[in-house]
Amino acid sequence: MILAPCIASILKHTFLFTLQALRHLQGEEENAQKGMASQDVAQYIMDSSDISKDGKLSFDEFIRAAAVSSTVQSLLHGTLKALGKPIKQ
């Protein structure tokens, strides 16, 4: 079964809000000394994943980024772990 995305694309400010919420679920503080701030991570992911350069991240662009970006994979892995969902290695 193929799942159709319910959101066609996401704007940078919405992605930033989502990233901040995910980091909160993971118990991470917004502390630049611990690593990149959420705004910097969101900008990095948008810059490297927005293939069409339209300022939006489409579902396909996000999936492509998740397949190759260790930053996106780490974000997803940490969120699933924080939510207590099983993670297949």
Helix content: 55-70%
Distance between the termini: 22 Å
Number of discrete helical segments: 4
Order of strands in the sheet with most strands: 1-2
Largest sheet: 2 strands, antiparallel
Query: How much strand?
Result: 5-15%
Query: What is the alpha-carbon Rg in Å?
Result: 13 Å
CA-based shape: globular
Instruction: Tell me how many strands there are.
Output: 2
Topology order in helix (H) and strand (E) letters: EHHEHH
Roughly what is the average pLDDT, rounded to an integer? 74
pLDDT under 50 segments (min length 5)? none
> Which structural category do the helix and sheet elements fall into?
mainly alpha
Oligomeric organization of the protein chains: single chain
List the helices and strands and how they pair.
Layout: E1 9-11, H1 12-25, H2 38-49, E2 56-58, H3 59-68, H4 70-82
Antiparallel strand pairs: 1-2
Helix pairs in contact: 1-2, 1-4, 3-4
Describe this structure in words.
The chain has 89 residues and is mostly helical. The chain has a domain at 9-24 and 37-82. It has four helices and two strands. It has a two-stranded antiparallel sheet with strand order 1-2. Helix 1 packs across helix 4 (70-82). The protein is globular. The model has no long low-confidence stretch (mean pLDDT 74).
Summary?
The protein has about 90 residues and is mainly alpha-helical.
Descriptive terms for the model:
89 residues; 2 strands; 4 helices; two-stranded antiparallel sheet; mainly alpha
